[in-house]
Every structure is written in structure tokens, then in C-alpha cells.
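quick one, 165 residues, struct below
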Amino acid sequence: MSNASLGFKKILVPLDGSRFAEGALPYAQMLAEHSGGQIELLRIAVHPSSYVYVNDPAVLASLYDSDRAHCEEYLQKVAAGLRGTTSLTITTAVLEGPVADAILDRAEETNADLIVMSTHGRSGMERWLLGSVAEKVVRGARIPVMLVRPKQPGAPATAADAAQP
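---
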């Protein structure tokens, strides 16, 4: 199989700000480098009304703007780190809305060929209560989804780990 046959020209990597989620990055990087593709880092800003009750619209808007700015700053930092190790094109996007839906919408709107994301590996009651973004993405995606479970919770995988069978 030639590198060109992989066809992953646009790889979407959703991140939640955790080192655990960043464990998907080496895999996305390796696939993009082998196929001559690019990576888009995606973060979903959480609207403050989903976790606090605020009666003042100005305060609510300020909280949202602050979270969005934090998301953008985080993605720029991660993108800069990737750019320091590769010549790939790395783009970023911050969206809002239900996380799984926002990921799926972004994949479709950007014509992504692959979604690479970490799974937190929840099971049982925790999964039932919290749901699984990864499961919702897999079920709703029209493109391949690569789920990565980093070897150590909280520690990103390395590029060397990604290259090993």
C-alpha cells in the first residue's frame, strides 16, 4: 500500500485540554506525515450556562468570552508544539455546542478524512452517567474514526509508541 493510498489529507483532532486527550496527537501526526496531510486541532468551548446559573447576560457573555479565549490560547500552544516537530500544516478551531455534534459538524464542514481522538475508557455507571463523546462520534461519523487510549492516564503517547505495532 502506498502512502498516497491512505488518503488522510485532512485529520481532525478534538482536544479537551487534558494531557490524556493529547495522547492522540502522535498518531495523527504520524498518519498526516505518511499521507502528506494536515491536522486541524479542535476544541469545544463550554457555554457557561451548562455549568452555572447566571442571571446577568453581560456576566454570562464575559464568562463565555473568557472560556473561548482560554480554548484558543490552549490550541495555539499545542499547535506551536506540533509545529516544532513537523512541517505539517496545523490549523485550529474553537466551536461551541454539544461536543460530539460539534466534532461531527466540523468534520463534515471541513471535509475531514479522519478523526483521531482519545477515549477516556469509562465504563459502567460512569459511562452511563457521563456518556461517551467518543462513542457518539463513532456512531455518527461518516468518515473513519481512530480512537486512542494512551498507555498511562494523563500522559500523552510518544511518536515512538505510535509507530510500534
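The longest strand covers residues 38-45.
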